[in-house]
């Protein structure tokens, strides 16, 4: 196959990208999007600050633009993200305790209901674990509402949209380490108690290479009975093309790895300013990393 999406589809997988609503008028950007990708994530437009700027007042304009573009071009959508300690609207940042808990769950219910039946998966909770060696939760006002906030969010999301796969998503979880093991233990606990979780997202913001145990780490989560997804892939550094191929091969080697999403299209679209971590250069030309991903997908 000659495009990323079609090549991934040969093994039943998807190949996606993050999309910014403000770029849907850029013809170079849209041409690549429409040609290469068959899954779309809103880079910012479905986050809490964007969708509920004032408490109880919802705004789906940016998210809907992206969803409508995707659907009308035959692409699926990953929803990102229902609850995240960053990009909380100001009113939520100023809340704590049971008041905040109620607002959080209402947010999950309202947004998941708006997009009911329209998204393939939701990042229900994003980045709730701490960096470093503790393996524990990250402190935030969300966490301070009680350790059960994550499972409560997953239950609320399932009730609102039973058809969406519900994911936990995080970064620095790309190999076996204290943080990924903390998440692994949570997922195992959720599965054993029937908390509705279907997938784990590995953001994979990488420099030069993936950890040597990248595939093994995906596999141990898959062995818990959840789908694994590579959700925000970008790789900087001189070994970029090899590293992209290694990540692609790792996903292909794990039966429950459903697909790969890169976090933007052109290097100039990336949040990592100056890192040039994506598959297309600023002019929209394919980079060596593009060819190595396409070759890896085609040799599966
Ligand atoms: O839209 C406003 C604009 O009106 C304002 O003038 C401008 C001034 O700063 O800011 C614009 O908003 C920015 C927004 O991106 C849209 O460009 C925010 O400041 C900026 O913080 C925001 O950054 C996003 C970041 O998440 C927020 O933490 C990045 O685009 C986005 O790529 C990044 O994505 C995250 C994932 O959601 C979760 N995983 C990590 C990943 C990278 O940080």
Task: Give me the secondary-structure topology.
Layout: H1 4-9, E1 14-19, H2 27-36, E2 39-42, H3 48-51, H4 61-72, E3 76-84, H5 90-93, H6 97-114, E4 121-126, H7 149-160, E5 165-170, H8 178-193, E6 199-202, E7 205-207, H9 214-222, E8 227-236, H10 240-253, E9 257-262, H11 288-298
Helix pairs in contact: 6-7, 10-11
Bound molecules: ligand G3I.
Ligand G3I binds at residues 43-44, 86-87, 126, 171, 203, 232, 271.
Shape: globular
Structural class: alpha/beta
- The fraction of residues assigned to DSSP E strands is 15-25%
Named once each, the bound ligands are: ligand G3I
Can you tell me the residue ranges where pLDDT is under 50 for at least 5 consecutive residues?
none
Beta strands, count: 9
H/E element sequence: HEHEHHEHHEHEHEEHEHEH
Helix percent reads 25-40%
The count of helical stretches stands at 11
Q: Termini, distance in Å?
A: 12 Å
Largest sheet: 8 strands, parallel, barrel
Catalytic activity: Endohydrolysis of (1->4)-beta-D-xylosidic linkages in xylans
EC number: 3.2.1.8
Protein name: Beta-xylanase
GO molecular function: endo-1,4-beta-xylanase activity; polysaccharide binding
Task: Give an account of the 3D structure.
By secondary structure, this protein is an alpha/beta fold. The protein contains 11 helices and 9 strands. The chain has helices at residues 4-9, 27-36, 48-51, 61-72, 90-93, 97-114, 149-160, 178-193, 214-222, 240-253, 288-298; strands at residues 14-19, 39-42, 76-84, 121-126, 165-170, 199-202, 205-207, 227-236, 257-262. The chain has an 8-stranded parallel barrel, surrounded by 5 helices. Strand 1 (14-19), helix 2 and strand 2 (39-42) form a beta-alpha-beta unit. Helix 6 (97-114) runs parallel beside helix 7 and helix 10 (240-253) packs parallel to helix 11. It is globular and about 50 Å long. The N and C termini lie close together (12 Å). The mean pLDDT is 98. It binds ligand G3I. Ligand G3I is lined by residues 43-44, 86-87, 126, 171, 203, 232, 271.
């Amino acid at each position: 196959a000659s495009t990323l999406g079609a090549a991934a589809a040969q093994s039943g997988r998807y190949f996606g990208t993050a999309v910014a609503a403000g770029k849907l008028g850029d013809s170079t950007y849209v041409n690549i999007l429409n040609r290469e990708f068959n899954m779309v994530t809103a880079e910012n437009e479905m986050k809490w600050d964007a969708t509920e700027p004032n408490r109880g007042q919802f705004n789906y304009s940016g998210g809907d633009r992206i969803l409508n573009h995707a659907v009308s071009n035959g692409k699926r959508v990953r929803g990102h993200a229902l609850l995240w300690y960053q990009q909380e609207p100001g009113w939520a940042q100023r809340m704590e305790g049971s008041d905040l808990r109620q607002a959080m769950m209402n947010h999950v219910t309202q947004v998941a209901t708006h997009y009911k039946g329209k998204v393939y998966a939701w990042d229900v909770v994003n980045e709730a674990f701490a960096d470093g060696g503790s393996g524990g939760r990250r402190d935030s006002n969300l966490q301070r509402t009680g350790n059960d906030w994550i499972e409560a969010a997953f239950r609320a999301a399932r009730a609102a949209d039973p058809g969406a796969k519900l994911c936990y998503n995080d970064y620095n979880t790309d190999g076996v380490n204290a943080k990924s093991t903390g998440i692994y233990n949570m997922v195992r606990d959720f599965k054993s108690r029937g908390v509705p979780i279907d997938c784990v997202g590995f953001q994979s913001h990488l420099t030069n290479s993936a950890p040597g145990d990248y595939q093994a780490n995906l596999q141990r989560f898959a062995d818990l009975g959840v789908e694994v997804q590579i959700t925000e892939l970008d790789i900087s550094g001189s070994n970029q093309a090899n590293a992209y191929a290694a990540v692609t091969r790792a996903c292909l080697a794990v039966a429950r790895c459903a697909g790969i999403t890169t976090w933007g299209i052109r290097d100039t679209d990336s949040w990592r300013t100056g890192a040039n971590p994506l598959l297309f250069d600023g002019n929209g030309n394919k980079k060596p990393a593009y060819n190595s991903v396409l070759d890896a997908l085609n040799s599966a």
